[in-house]
Amino acid sequence: MFEYALRGNRQYWVWLAILGGFIGVGFLCYLLQFNQGLGITGMSRDVTWGFYIAQFTFLVGVAASAVMVVLPCYLHNYKAFGKIAILGEFIAIASVTMCILFIMVDLGQPMRGVNIILHPSPTSLMFWDMIVLNGYLFLNLIISWVTLESERRAVAPPKWIKPVIYLSIPWAVSIHTVTAFLYSGLSARSFWMTAVLAPRFLASAFAAGPALLIIICLILRKLTKFDPGKEPIQTLAKIVAYAMAANFFFVLMEVFTAFYSAMPEHTVHFKYLFGGVEGASALTLWMWFSVMIGSISLILLIYPRTRIDETVLSISCVGVFISLWIDKGLAMVVAGFIPSPLGSFTEYAPTLPELLISLGIYAIGMFIVTALYKITLTVRKEI
């Protein structure tokens, strides 16, 4: 079926060429980083995780959210998700691939990643994060390809694939849970040291991922003959609304606990994010913007009349996605380092090479999604 990705109209090839250009620019910047080291990034002695790890954290959630269509479709036999289940799995494949790439560029020297394999340490959460990420990628590759091949041949999927699908459901939850444990297990970083971090990560994941899938489905409906139907889109919209509400609830729980206890080492991070401390306020406007568009989008998704309107729905899903990207893909990681355990405020901002490398990795993810969706839509068109 790979040959289907080599067929397409002019717009298809122009889009791939544009993505290829971004990938090329990102690769050239990565060669610069490989030669000069991580000194070309905005990271420092106090802020040792930056934009790369923030994107990894956000994309793990996007990948895990595939369970929101896989679970109802295969476990509860919800037929409405039949058309879009594989689309969610392909988003997961692209997202996990980007996660791995962001980790590799953050290591500086990619060969350092081999040490996790050569010298495994089961007591290290990094070891388990490698296991769950690569395992989830492998599971989704098998499930999506076997089910698509069965669909192309107009036969039922083989019986052995069902246990693999069932295994992928808890595995999806595990990838973001382990990622949350990477943060909450660091006792010196009080901003992350909370038991609610894993549920908060999952809630935001189950909002951002389905929101992205809705946006993609609406784009495909406009550009191609593929129509996922109104019922699955509206069901996904309800999932986004409930998950986003749960995410806000978990955030407010953390804010209440921090300020009611009045422990300075816990409140200072929130003060930095939403008001600035000692002249450090680089993320303040970003966070208020995130809260504003997240709240408006949530209201529009909860109210049935606005949720049914697909124009408003698409705008709301974009708002949810941007809001959660700011929260997890920008502020979550950086705020854990500001202030440092010694009380110093060293602000962080990604540099141009850092942003271009990240843009190149996102272009790789979009390239993968485009090729896989092209294969899927061609198969269904032939059927």
Topology of this protein?
Layout: H1 10-36, H2 51-64, H3 67-75, H4 85-106, H5 114-118, H6 125-153, H7 161-184, H8 197-223, H9 230-261, H10 264-274, H11 284-302, H12 304-308, H13 310-335, H14 352-382
Explain the overall architecture.
With 383 residues, the protein is mainly alpha-helical. It has one domain: Formate dehydrogenase/DMSO reductase fold (Up-down Bundle). The chain is 73% helix and 0% strand.
Distance between the termini: 14 Å
Shape: globular
Ranges where pLDDT stays below 50 over 5 or more residues in a row are: none
Tally of strands: 0
Helix content: over 70%
The whole-angstrom Rg is 21 Å
Kindly give the count of domains: 1
How large is the count of helical segments?
A: 14
| Named CATH topology | Formate dehydrogenase/DMSO reductase fold
CATH class: Mainly Alpha
Q: Major sheet: size, sense and barrel closure?
A: none
Summary tags:
single chain, mainly alpha, Formate dehydrogenase/DMSO reductase fold, about 75% helix, globular
Brief rundown of the structure:
With about 375 residues, this protein is mainly α. It has helices at about 10-35, 50-65, 65-75, 85-105, 115-120, 125-155, 160-185, 195-225, 230-260, 265-275, 285-300, 305-310, 310-335, 350-380.
